[in-house]
Amino acid sequence: MELTLIIPCHNEAENIAPLLARMAECMEQLDAPDGLELVFVDDGSTDVTFAKIAQAMDAPAHPRISMKAIELSRNFGKEAAMLAGLENARGDLVGFIDADLQQDPATSFKMLNYLREHPEVDCVAAVQEERHEGRVLKWFKRRFYKAFNAVGDVELPANASDFRVFRRNVADALMSMPEYFRFSKGLFAWVGFRTHTIPYTPAKRHAGSTSWSFGSLMGYALGGIVSFTTWPLRLILYVGMLTSLVSIIYLLVVVFEYFVVGINVPGYPTLICITLLFAGIVMLALGIFGEYLGRIYIEGKHRPVYLTRRMIEQDGTDQEADGLR
Ligand code: UDP
Ligand code: MG
Protein backbone atom coordinates (compact mmCIF):
# COMPACT_ATOMS: atom_id res chain seq x y z
CA MET A 1 0.00 0.00 0.00
CA GLU A 2 1.63 3.22 -1.08
CA LEU A 3 -0.58 5.76 0.65
CA THR A 4 -3.04 5.70 3.56
CA LEU A 5 -5.42 8.61 3.90
CA ILE A 6 -7.03 8.97 7.32
CA ILE A 7 -10.47 10.53 7.29
CA PRO A 8 -11.93 11.60 10.65
CA CYS A 9 -15.71 11.83 10.36
CA HIS A 10 -18.22 13.36 12.72
CA ASN A 11 -21.74 13.45 11.32
CA GLU A 12 -20.63 13.32 7.70
CA ALA A 13 -23.21 10.82 6.37
CA GLU A 14 -23.96 12.92 3.32
CA ASN A 15 -20.34 13.42 2.43
CA ILE A 16 -19.13 9.81 2.38
CA ALA A 17 -20.43 8.88 -1.08
CA PRO A 18 -19.36 12.15 -2.79
CA LEU A 19 -15.93 11.91 -1.15
CA LEU A 20 -15.45 8.36 -2.40
CA ALA A 21 -16.60 9.37 -5.87
CA ARG A 22 -14.02 12.16 -5.87
CA MET A 23 -11.34 9.76 -4.61
CA ALA A 24 -12.12 7.32 -7.42
CA GLU A 25 -11.98 10.15 -9.94
CA CYS A 26 -8.58 11.29 -8.65
CA MET A 27 -7.26 7.71 -8.78
CA GLU A 28 -7.34 8.02 -12.56
CA GLN A 29 -4.79 10.85 -12.47
CA LEU A 30 -1.20 10.14 -13.46
CA ASP A 31 0.17 11.01 -10.01
CA ALA A 32 -2.32 8.78 -8.15
CA PRO A 33 -0.87 6.28 -5.69
CA ASP A 34 -0.39 2.65 -6.77
CA GLY A 35 -2.54 1.51 -3.90
CA LEU A 36 -4.65 3.73 -1.68
CA GLU A 37 -5.95 2.75 1.74
CA LEU A 38 -8.73 4.87 3.20
CA VAL A 39 -9.10 4.68 6.96
CA PHE A 40 -12.43 6.17 7.98
CA VAL A 41 -12.71 6.96 11.66
CA ASP A 42 -16.27 7.59 12.76
CA ASP A 43 -15.85 9.87 15.74
CA GLY A 44 -19.10 9.20 17.59
CA SER A 45 -21.45 10.44 14.90
CA THR A 46 -25.09 10.70 15.86
CA ASP A 47 -26.23 10.22 12.27
CA VAL A 48 -25.76 7.25 9.92
CA THR A 49 -22.13 8.02 9.02
CA PHE A 50 -20.82 4.60 10.04
CA ALA A 51 -23.59 2.77 8.19
CA LYS A 52 -22.76 4.79 5.06
CA ILE A 53 -19.08 3.88 5.34
CA ALA A 54 -19.87 0.20 5.90
CA GLN A 55 -22.24 0.24 2.96
CA ALA A 56 -19.60 1.83 0.72
CA MET A 57 -17.20 -0.96 1.62
CA ASP A 58 -19.42 -3.54 -0.06
CA ALA A 59 -18.80 -1.99 -3.46
CA PRO A 60 -15.25 -0.57 -3.62
CA ALA A 61 -15.09 2.82 -5.28
CA HIS A 62 -12.00 1.92 -7.30
CA PRO A 63 -9.97 -1.28 -7.86
CA ARG A 64 -6.88 0.25 -6.26
CA ILE A 65 -8.72 1.62 -3.22
CA SER A 66 -9.15 -0.46 -0.07
CA MET A 67 -11.06 0.76 2.94
CA LYS A 68 -11.14 0.32 6.66
CA ALA A 69 -13.83 1.65 8.98
CA ILE A 70 -13.28 2.32 12.66
CA GLU A 71 -16.10 3.36 14.92
CA LEU A 72 -15.12 5.08 18.16
CA SER A 73 -17.24 4.46 21.22
CA ARG A 74 -18.23 8.13 21.44
CA ASN A 75 -17.14 11.55 20.18
CA PHE A 76 -13.54 11.93 21.30
CA GLY A 77 -12.72 14.88 19.08
CA LYS A 78 -10.92 15.12 15.77
CA GLU A 79 -7.43 14.83 17.24
CA ALA A 80 -8.27 11.53 18.94
CA ALA A 81 -9.86 10.25 15.73
CA MET A 82 -6.67 11.14 13.89
CA LEU A 83 -4.61 9.07 16.33
CA ALA A 84 -7.01 6.14 15.91
CA GLY A 85 -6.47 6.39 12.17
CA LEU A 86 -2.69 6.58 12.52
CA GLU A 87 -2.60 3.48 14.67
CA ASN A 88 -4.46 1.59 11.97
CA ALA A 89 -2.70 2.93 8.88
CA ARG A 90 -0.61 0.50 6.89
CA GLY A 91 0.64 2.67 4.03
CA ASP A 92 4.27 3.61 3.50
CA LEU A 93 3.07 7.17 3.36
CA VAL A 94 0.26 8.49 5.51
CA GLY A 95 -1.94 11.55 5.24
CA PHE A 96 -4.95 13.23 6.81
CA ILE A 97 -7.90 14.62 4.92
CA ASP A 98 -11.28 15.96 6.05
CA ALA A 99 -14.48 14.20 5.10
CA ASP A 100 -16.36 17.30 4.02
CA LEU A 101 -14.64 17.75 0.61
CA GLN A 102 -13.14 21.07 1.67
CA GLN A 103 -9.82 19.44 1.00
CA ASP A 104 -9.39 17.87 -2.42
CA PRO A 105 -7.77 14.42 -2.68
CA ALA A 106 -5.97 15.78 -5.75
CA THR A 107 -3.98 18.00 -3.36
CA SER A 108 -3.10 14.91 -1.27
CA PHE A 109 -1.76 13.28 -4.42
CA LYS A 110 0.24 16.42 -5.19
CA MET A 111 1.80 16.12 -1.73
CA LEU A 112 2.43 12.42 -2.33
CA ASN A 113 4.17 13.25 -5.58
CA TYR A 114 6.36 15.82 -3.92
CA LEU A 115 7.52 13.17 -1.45
CA ARG A 116 8.19 10.76 -4.31
CA GLU A 117 10.39 13.32 -6.01
CA HIS A 118 12.12 14.61 -2.88
CA PRO A 119 13.48 11.76 -0.78
CA GLU A 120 15.06 14.28 1.58
CA VAL A 121 11.65 15.66 2.64
CA ASP A 122 9.62 13.80 5.30
CA CYS A 123 6.37 15.71 5.40
CA VAL A 124 4.36 17.92 3.06
CA ALA A 125 1.75 20.26 4.54
CA ALA A 126 -0.91 22.10 2.57
CA VAL A 127 -1.25 25.69 3.69
CA GLN A 128 -4.48 27.58 3.20
CA GLU A 129 -3.97 30.40 0.76
CA GLU A 130 -7.29 32.02 0.98
CA ARG A 131 -9.77 31.67 3.79
CA HIS A 132 -13.50 32.05 3.44
CA GLU A 133 -13.79 33.51 6.89
CA GLY A 134 -14.94 36.66 8.59
CA ARG A 135 -12.46 39.45 9.26
CA VAL A 136 -12.66 39.09 13.04
CA LEU A 137 -11.84 35.38 12.90
CA LYS A 138 -8.98 36.01 10.48
CA TRP A 139 -7.60 38.64 12.84
CA PHE A 140 -7.81 36.28 15.82
CA LYS A 141 -6.10 33.51 13.89
CA ARG A 142 -3.27 35.82 12.87
CA ARG A 143 -2.88 36.94 16.49
CA PHE A 144 -2.85 33.31 17.60
CA TYR A 145 0.04 32.33 15.33
CA LYS A 146 1.97 35.48 16.29
CA ALA A 147 1.44 34.87 20.02
CA PHE A 148 2.15 31.15 19.83
CA ASN A 149 5.36 31.64 17.90
CA ALA A 150 6.46 34.43 20.23
CA VAL A 151 6.07 32.35 23.40
CA GLY A 152 5.87 28.72 22.24
CA ASP A 153 8.80 26.36 22.32
CA VAL A 154 8.13 25.26 18.74
CA GLU A 155 7.41 27.26 15.59
CA LEU A 156 3.98 26.85 13.98
CA PRO A 157 3.84 27.70 10.30
CA ALA A 158 0.81 30.00 9.89
CA ASN A 159 -2.30 28.37 8.44
CA ALA A 160 -0.77 24.91 8.12
CA SER A 161 -3.36 22.43 9.30
CA ASP A 162 -3.32 18.67 9.52
CA PHE A 163 -3.97 18.40 5.77
CA ARG A 164 -0.67 16.64 5.16
CA VAL A 165 1.07 13.63 3.72
CA PHE A 166 4.12 12.26 5.49
CA ARG A 167 6.47 9.32 5.76
CA ARG A 168 6.46 6.47 8.29
CA ASN A 169 9.08 8.17 10.46
CA VAL A 170 6.72 11.11 11.07
CA ALA A 171 3.75 8.78 11.65
CA ASP A 172 5.75 6.76 14.20
CA ALA A 173 6.90 9.94 15.93
CA LEU A 174 3.30 11.18 16.21
CA MET A 175 2.18 7.84 17.66
CA SER A 176 5.02 7.85 20.15
CA MET A 177 3.43 10.82 21.89
CA PRO A 178 0.82 9.35 24.20
CA GLU A 179 -0.56 12.63 25.48
CA TYR A 180 -4.27 13.01 26.05
CA PHE A 181 -4.50 16.66 24.97
CA ARG A 182 -3.47 16.39 21.35
CA PHE A 183 -2.92 19.66 19.56
CA SER A 184 -1.86 18.30 16.19
CA LYS A 185 -0.47 21.54 14.78
CA GLY A 186 1.88 21.62 17.73
CA LEU A 187 2.63 17.89 17.58
CA PHE A 188 3.70 18.21 13.95
CA ALA A 189 5.93 21.13 14.83
CA TRP A 190 7.32 19.36 17.88
CA VAL A 191 8.37 16.16 16.11
CA GLY A 192 10.31 18.21 13.59
CA PHE A 193 11.50 16.41 10.43
CA ARG A 194 11.82 18.14 7.10
CA THR A 195 8.53 19.71 6.16
CA HIS A 196 7.67 21.33 2.88
CA THR A 197 4.54 23.45 2.42
CA ILE A 198 2.40 23.78 -0.66
CA PRO A 199 -0.50 26.23 -1.04
CA TYR A 200 -4.12 25.18 -1.45
CA THR A 201 -7.49 26.87 -1.33
CA PRO A 202 -10.13 25.05 0.70
CA ALA A 203 -13.48 24.56 -0.99
CA LYS A 204 -16.86 25.16 0.67
CA ARG A 205 -18.11 22.35 2.87
CA HIS A 206 -20.05 19.85 0.72
CA ALA A 207 -22.83 19.05 3.22
CA GLY A 208 -23.47 19.44 6.92
CA SER A 209 -21.94 22.14 9.07
CA THR A 210 -18.63 22.78 10.78
CA SER A 211 -18.38 21.71 14.38
CA TRP A 212 -16.33 24.78 15.30
CA SER A 213 -17.91 27.75 16.97
CA PHE A 214 -16.01 30.91 17.82
CA GLY A 215 -15.90 29.87 21.48
CA SER A 216 -14.60 26.38 20.76
CA LEU A 217 -11.90 27.85 18.49
CA MET A 218 -10.78 30.15 21.31
CA GLY A 219 -10.67 27.22 23.72
CA TYR A 220 -8.68 25.22 21.16
CA ALA A 221 -6.19 28.06 20.73
CA LEU A 222 -5.72 28.50 24.49
CA GLY A 223 -5.37 24.75 24.92
CA GLY A 224 -2.71 24.72 22.22
CA ILE A 225 -0.69 27.34 24.05
CA VAL A 226 -1.00 25.54 27.39
CA SER A 227 0.02 22.27 25.70
CA PHE A 228 3.16 23.61 24.17
CA THR A 229 4.59 26.20 26.49
CA THR A 230 4.82 27.01 30.17
CA TRP A 231 5.36 30.64 29.27
CA PRO A 232 2.09 31.81 30.95
CA LEU A 233 3.46 30.45 34.25
CA ARG A 234 6.60 32.48 33.78
CA LEU A 235 4.47 35.49 32.95
CA ILE A 236 2.87 35.18 36.40
CA LEU A 237 6.33 35.24 37.93
CA TYR A 238 7.24 38.38 36.00
CA VAL A 239 3.97 40.12 36.88
CA GLY A 240 4.53 39.15 40.53
CA MET A 241 8.05 40.52 40.50
CA LEU A 242 6.98 43.74 38.85
CA THR A 243 4.05 44.38 41.19
CA SER A 244 6.21 43.56 44.24
CA LEU A 245 8.82 46.04 43.08
CA VAL A 246 6.26 48.77 42.47
CA SER A 247 4.64 48.02 45.86
CA ILE A 248 7.95 48.36 47.70
CA ILE A 249 8.67 51.68 46.03
CA TYR A 250 5.20 52.93 46.86
CA LEU A 251 5.60 51.70 50.44
CA LEU A 252 8.78 53.75 50.81
CA VAL A 253 6.98 56.77 49.43
CA VAL A 254 4.14 56.36 51.95
CA VAL A 255 6.51 55.91 54.91
CA PHE A 256 8.48 58.94 53.82
CA GLU A 257 5.28 60.98 53.47
CA TYR A 258 4.09 59.88 56.93
CA PHE A 259 7.23 61.03 58.70
CA VAL A 260 8.06 64.11 56.67
CA VAL A 261 4.85 65.66 55.41
CA GLY A 262 2.28 63.85 57.51
CA ILE A 263 -0.64 62.00 55.99
CA ASN A 264 -4.15 63.33 55.97
CA VAL A 265 -6.94 60.84 55.46
CA PRO A 266 -7.71 60.88 51.65
CA GLY A 267 -6.55 57.86 49.73
CA TYR A 268 -9.70 55.79 49.84
CA PRO A 269 -10.04 55.50 46.00
CA THR A 270 -6.38 54.52 45.71
CA LEU A 271 -6.88 51.77 48.30
CA ILE A 272 -9.93 50.37 46.58
CA CYS A 273 -8.25 50.42 43.16
CA ILE A 274 -5.11 48.75 44.41
CA THR A 275 -7.03 46.07 46.32
CA LEU A 276 -9.18 45.27 43.29
CA LEU A 277 -6.24 45.28 40.92
CA PHE A 278 -4.24 42.90 43.05
CA ALA A 279 -7.22 40.64 43.69
CA GLY A 280 -7.65 40.48 39.91
CA ILE A 281 -4.02 39.63 39.31
CA VAL A 282 -4.08 36.92 41.97
CA MET A 283 -7.24 35.35 40.56
CA LEU A 284 -5.75 35.43 37.06
CA ALA A 285 -2.61 33.75 38.31
CA LEU A 286 -4.70 31.09 40.06
CA GLY A 287 -6.64 30.56 36.85
CA ILE A 288 -3.47 30.03 34.84
CA PHE A 289 -2.15 27.65 37.50
CA GLY A 290 -5.45 25.82 37.44
CA GLU A 291 -5.29 25.37 33.70
CA TYR A 292 -1.96 23.57 33.99
CA LEU A 293 -2.92 21.70 37.14
CA GLY A 294 -6.11 20.42 35.52
CA ARG A 295 -4.11 19.06 32.63
CA ILE A 296 -1.62 17.36 34.91
CA TYR A 297 -4.57 15.78 36.72
CA ILE A 298 -6.16 14.46 33.53
CA GLU A 299 -2.88 13.34 31.96
CA GLY A 300 -2.04 11.63 35.26
CA LYS A 301 -4.98 9.28 34.86
CA HIS A 302 -3.33 7.81 31.74
CA ARG A 303 -6.65 7.13 30.14
CA PRO A 304 -6.63 5.98 26.52
CA VAL A 305 -7.06 8.80 24.02
CA TYR A 306 -9.96 6.95 22.34
CA LEU A 307 -11.90 3.69 22.52
CA THR A 308 -13.13 1.73 19.54
CA ARG A 309 -16.52 0.10 19.33
CA ARG A 310 -16.31 -1.63 15.98
CA MET A 311 -13.88 -2.09 13.14
CA ILE A 312 -14.56 -3.33 9.63
CA GLU A 313 -11.78 -4.29 7.24
CA GLN A 314 -11.86 -4.63 3.48
CA ASP A 315 -11.48 -8.41 3.68
CA GLY A 316 -14.78 -8.59 5.52
CA THR A 317 -13.42 -8.89 9.06
CA ASP A 318 -15.93 -7.20 11.30
CA GLN A 319 -14.90 -6.92 14.91
CA GLU A 320 -17.15 -5.75 17.64
CA ALA A 321 -14.25 -4.28 19.51
CA ASP A 322 -13.98 -4.87 23.22
CA GLY A 323 -13.50 -1.19 23.81
CA LEU A 324 -9.75 -1.50 23.88
CA ARG A 325 -7.47 -0.25 21.17
N1 UDP B 1 -14.39 15.91 13.05
C1 UDP B 1 -14.20 14.81 13.88
N2 UDP B 1 -14.55 14.91 15.20
C2 UDP B 1 -15.06 16.04 15.74
C3 UDP B 1 -15.22 17.16 14.90
C4 UDP B 1 -14.87 17.06 13.55
O1 UDP B 1 -13.72 13.76 13.44
O2 UDP B 1 -15.35 16.05 16.94
C5 UDP B 1 -14.02 15.81 11.61
C6 UDP B 1 -15.10 16.27 10.65
O3 UDP B 1 -15.98 15.22 10.35
C7 UDP B 1 -14.28 16.68 9.44
C8 UDP B 1 -13.00 17.21 10.06
O4 UDP B 1 -12.93 16.68 11.37
O5 UDP B 1 -13.97 15.57 8.60
C9 UDP B 1 -12.97 18.74 10.08
O6 UDP B 1 -14.09 19.19 10.78
P1 UDP B 1 -14.88 20.51 10.36
O7 UDP B 1 -15.22 20.47 8.91
O8 UDP B 1 -16.02 20.63 11.33
O9 UDP B 1 -13.82 21.62 10.66
P2 UDP B 1 -13.39 22.87 9.74
O10 UDP B 1 -13.22 22.35 8.35
O11 UDP B 1 -14.49 23.84 9.86
O12 UDP B 1 -12.11 23.32 10.34
MG1 MG C 1 -14.48 21.34 7.23
**Strand percentage, roughly?**
15-25%
- The CATH homologous superfamily of the largest domain is called Spore Coat Polysaccharide Biosynthesis Protein SpsA, Chain A
Radius of gyration, in Å, reads 25 Å
What structural class do the secondary elements suggest? alpha/beta
For the residues shown, what is the average pLDDT?
Answer: 88
Number of helices: 10
What would the principal axes of the Cα set say about the shape? Answer: elongated
CATH topology of the largest domain: Spore Coat Polysaccharide Biosynthesis Protein SpsA, Chain A
Main sheet specs: 9 strands, mixed
Number of strands: 9
How would you describe the oligomerization state of the chains in this entry? single chain
> Which small-molecule species are bound to the chains here?
uridine-5'-diphosphate, magnesium ion
| The top level CATH class name of the largest domain | Alpha Beta
Number of domains: 2
Q: What secondary-structure arrangement, pairings included, does this model have?
A:
Elements: E1 3-9, H1 13-26, E2 36-42, H2 49-58, E3 65-72, H3 78-86, E4 93-96, H4 105-117, E5 123-128, H5 135-151, E6 160-167, H6 168-175, H7 184-191, E7 195-200, H8 214-228, H9 231-260, H10 268-300, E8 308-313, E9 318-320
Parallel strand pairs: 1-2, 1-4, 2-3, 5-7
Antiparallel strand pairs: 3-8, 4-6, 5-6, 8-9
Helix pairs in contact: 1-2, 5-8, 9-10
Bound molecules: uridine-5'-diphosphate and magnesium ion.
Walk me through the structure.
This protein folds into two domains: 3-213 and 304-324, Spore Coat Polysaccharide Biosynthesis Protein SpsA, Chain A (Alpha-Beta Complex), CATH 3.90.550; 231-301. It has a nine-stranded mixed sheet with strand order 7-5-6-4-1-2-3-8-9, with helices on both faces. The mean pLDDT is 88. α1 (13-26) packs parallel to α2, α5 (135-151) packs parallel to α8 (214-228) and α9 (231-260) runs antiparallel to α10. The longest helix has 33 residues, at 268-300. It has helices spanning 13-26, 49-58, 78-86, 105-117, 135-151, 168-175, 184-191, 214-228, 231-260, 268-300, and strands at residues 3-9, 36-42, 65-72, 93-96, 123-128, 160-167, 195-200, 308-313, 318-320. The chain is 48% helix and 17% strand. It is built from ten helices and nine strands. The relative contact order is 0.14. The radius of gyration is 25 Å and the shape is elongated. It is α/β, with parallel strands linked by helices. Magnesium ion (MG) binds next to loops.
